[in-house]
Specification:
Strand content: under 5%
Low-confidence stretches: 152-157
Distance between the termini: 17 Å
Largest sheet: none
Number of helices: 7
Helix content: 55-70%
Radius of gyration: 17 Å
Number of strands: 0
Mean pLDDT: 80
Shape: elongated
Length: about 160
C-alpha cells in the first residue's frame, strides 16, 4: 500500500493524462450530459421522452462497459506488446486497486470513446441521438462513482 501513486511513464505529459481523481469524471462529463439533453430538446425531442432516452443510453453504456471489460480489458494476450498495452489500459488498475489517481478511466481517454457519437449518428435520428448519448455518458459517470466505493483512500475524496 502506498499513499502516493506510482509513476508508470517517463513522459510527464503521458503520466499526467493517465491520472484522474474520481470526481473529475462527473465534473467533466456532467455538463456534457446536460448539454446533450438540451440539444435533444432543441432537435425536437419531447421533454416526456428524455427519461426514456436517458435509460436507453444508460443500458447501452452498461452493455458497452461489459463488452469492453470482457473482451478487451480481461482478454488473455500473448504477444509482449499486447500485454504491455493491456497493463497500461487496465492492468495497473487491477494490480493497484487503491491507487486513487488511477482508479478510474481519465476524461481524456473517455473522449476517445466519444467517437460513439459519430457511430450513433448513423443509427439514430437526430432527435433521439443526443439524449441517448447523454444517457450513455451518465452511465459512465455512475459506473465511475460507484467504482469509487470501496477505495479506502479518503484523502483524495
Amino acid at each position: 500500500m502506498r499513499k502516493e501513486s506510482s509513476r508508470i511513464f517517463e513522459s510527464s505529459v503521458i503520466e499526467i493524462i493517465t491520472r484522474c481523481k474520481w470526481w473529475m469524471v462527473p465534473t467533466v462529463w456532467g455538463p456534457v450530459v446536460v448539454w446533450c439533453q438540451v440539444k435533444a430538446m432543441e432537435q425536437g425531442l419531447p421533454t416526456s421522452a428524455l427519461p426514456v432516452a436517458l435509460l436507453v443510453g444508460f443500458i447501452f453504456w452498461t452493455f458497452l462497459e461489459y463488452v469492453i471489460h470482457r473482451f478487451l480489458f480481461n482478454a488473455k494476450s500473448s504477444p509482449a506488446w499486447r500485454n504491455q498495452l493491456h497493463y497500461v489500459i487496465h492492468g495497473f488498475h487491477l494490480k493497484h486497486p487503491m491507487d486513487a489517481d488511477r482508479l478510474v478511466f481519465p476524461p481524456v481517454h473517455t473522449a476517445a470513446i466519444a467517437m460513439i457519437w459519430k457511430l450513433m449518428e448513423f443509427v439514430l435520428t437526430p432527435t433521439w441521438m443526443p439524449s441517448i448519448f447523454g444517457g450513455a455518458l451518465f452511465g459512465r459517470i455512475i459506473s465511475t462513482t460507484t467504482s469509487r466505493v470501496g477505495c479506502t483512500d479518503t484523502a483524495s475524496a
